[in-house]
TrEMBL record:
PROSITE patterns: NPH3 (PS51649). Signal peptide: none annotated. InterPro entries: NPH3/RPT2-like, NPH3_dom, SKP1/BTB/POZ_sf. Residues 170-404 form the NPH3 domain. Transmembrane segments: none annotated. Belongs to the NPH3 family. One of its GO terms (biological process) is protein ubiquitination. Pathway: Protein modification; protein ubiquitination. It holds the Pfam family NPH3. It comes from Oryza punctata. This is NPH3 domain-containing protein. Keywords: Ubl conjugation pathway.
Length: 519
């Protein structure tokens, strides 16, 4: 039987209420519908022709359409109908629209009971309810059923992360692929409100994007006939990804997504968003990831060099606020990979010139990326006169340069000069013995000073003791600083640097004037 004959309970009682919804017509009875539908009651009261006239209403704007009204009318007539996860949201929206709220709760109460006991109790059911809300906007948002569904999904995800009920444990990520980008964004927001771990957000976002964009990623921008559809889909997915602060996504995934976005001609806003996301996690990216971005759609030649340049520029600008980000960029290349550090010294000098307000400790941290042993003679000479460098760096440059110069006959038996202007010295048994004698003399001088201080402390009073001890301590501290590489970030191994003339000079002078001995 068609719908026109389903609502006639008796041929003796003709229909006096006609409801039109698009192409569907429902012949009903005012005596049945008016008591349970506030909307119809008001419309009948405002109609002309008296109580016996037939009233015709157009309810094409009803959320859920003819299917939702069919079940609502069955409820009014007391007929059987089924509430499921696919129609529960539509029935609730229709009940609110028709004002079906009698004293016993009406249709809305029955739907609410179903959602509480069945519809929102499991993850797949909650996903189905939220998906059904996508065709009921904005009413589904206004009455709160869409948000309640998203909250239920977030709760079930958090429970699954803590106490998995299926295998594999991340089975829930595939369930989210049925949602539209707008609904997925509601779930991500609900997860953030529940303070879900960043790993959960990353797993949800990457799985959702890969499943939803499987066709786009597989085509890699070659399907021209679907480029417009793919472009809209990529833009909508990128727009709802979690922020970098909440959950930084993997660099490899973002690079692949950016490659597809550039290939299919996505909007500049979408591409910029992905570029900034990659810049935030650039330390995770490999050369292959950046090459993926640079290649053209066919993957045969490098084309998107400007895109890679913008990513690196964004990374530098992002980290430029702190000295640690420069240090991190310079440390990406091992020190031993550079034959000379002159270029690195110039970069350090430019950075210090651009950031004159850095404190001494911060400047020392910046200078720690270079090795004074690998500076050329000209580089050490410039560094020794550079007022922007921290004091420890200047002392390092002076000390090493003086050791180089004091090797005197660098072109003789003692050594020569390498391709970078660094002195190359050869040690001998005689030189090592000379250094050993100097160290022994310095130890003797320190022992005598300690004995002198001890005697002064015994012969003087408390005030005298403190004064002499303080002077002795200051002298010892000054003496210990003669070697600026005893500790700190500029500590270097100087065992291979031998001063040939040092032994000869100190053999004719008093031991206390031996300022460049290495202990």
């Amino acid at each position: 039987m068609d719908r026109t004959s389903q609502w006639v309970s008796s041929p003796d009682i003709p229909a006096d209420l006609l409801i039109r919804i698009a192409d569907d017509v429902f012949p009903l009875h005012k005596a049945v519908m008016v008591p349970k539908c506030g909307y119809i009651r008001k419309a009948v009261a405002a109609a002309r022709g008296g109580a016996t006239a037939t009233v015709e209403l157009d309810l094409s704007a009803l959320p859920g359409g003819a299917d939702a009204f069919d079940k609502a009318a069955r409820y009014c007539y007391g007929a059987n109908f089924e509430i499921s996860v696919r129609n529960a949201a539509a029935l609730l929206c229709a009940a609110v629209f028709l004002d079906m709220h009698p004293a016993d709760g009406g249709l809305a109460r029955r739907v609410e009971e179903f959602l509480a006991k069945v519809g929102l109790r499991t993850l797949p059911a909650a996903v189905s309810v939220l998906r059904s809300c996508e065709g009921l906007l904005p009413v589904a948002e206004e009455i709160g059923v869409a948000q309640r569904s998203a909250d239920a999904i977030a709760l079930r995800i958090c429970n699954e992360v803590l106490f998995p009920t299926r295998s594999p444990p991340d089975w829930w990520t595939a369930e989210l692929a049925a949602l539209s980008p707008g609904s997925f964004h509601k779930v991500i927001t609900a997860l953030r409100c529940r303070r879900a771990e960043p790993e959960v957000l990353v797993a949800a976002a990457t799985a959702y994007a890969e499943l939803l964009l499987a066709e786009v990623l597989a085509a890699d921008g070659h399907a021209a006939d679907h480029s417009a559809m793919h472009r809209a889909l990529v833009e909508s997915v990128v727009a709802v990804l979690p922020s970098t602060d909440d959950a930084p996504l993997p660099a490899a995934f973002l690079c692949r997504l950016l490659h597809v976005a550039v290939t299919i001609g996505a909007s500049a806003k979408t591409c910029l968003d992905l570029e900034l996301r990659i810049a935030a996690v650039l330390e995770q990216a490999t050369a292959g990831d950046l090459l993926t971005v640079a290649l053209d759609g066919a993957g045969e030649r490098v084309q998107n060099v400007d895109t890679v340049r913008r990513i690196i520029t964004a990374f530098v600008e992002r980290e430029a606020a702190s000295a640690g980000g420069f240090v991190g960029l310079a440390g990406a290349v091992p020190k031993e990979a550079r034959a000379t550090h002159d270029c690195l010294y110039r970069a350090v000098d430019i950075y210090l010139k651009a950031h004159p307000a850095l404190e001494e400790m911060e400047r020392e941290k910046v200078c720690s990326v270079m090795d004074p042993l690998k500076l050329s003679y000209q580089g050490r000479l410039h560094a020794s006169q550079n007022k922007r460098l921290p004091l420890q760096a200047v002392l390092s440059a002076l000390y090493y340069d003086q050791l180089k110069l004091r090797s005197g006959d660098a072109n003789g038996d003692g050594g020569g000069w390498d391709a970078y202007g660094n002195g190359v010295m050869r040690s001998s048994a005689k030189e090592e013995a000379s250094l050993a004698r100097e160290n022994e003399a310095l130890r003797s001088e320190l022992a005598r000073m300690r004995a002198y201080v001890s005697g002064m402390q015994q012969s003087k009073g408390t005030t005298g003791k403190k004064k002499k001890a303080g002077m002795a301590s200051l002298w010892l501290q000054t003496l210990s600083r003669l070697n600026p590489f005893k500790a700190g970030i500029w500590a270097k191994d100087t065992s291979s640097i031998v001063d040939k003339k040092m032994g000869a000079m100190h053999s004719t002078n008093k031991p206390k004037r031996r300022r460049f001995s290495i202990s």
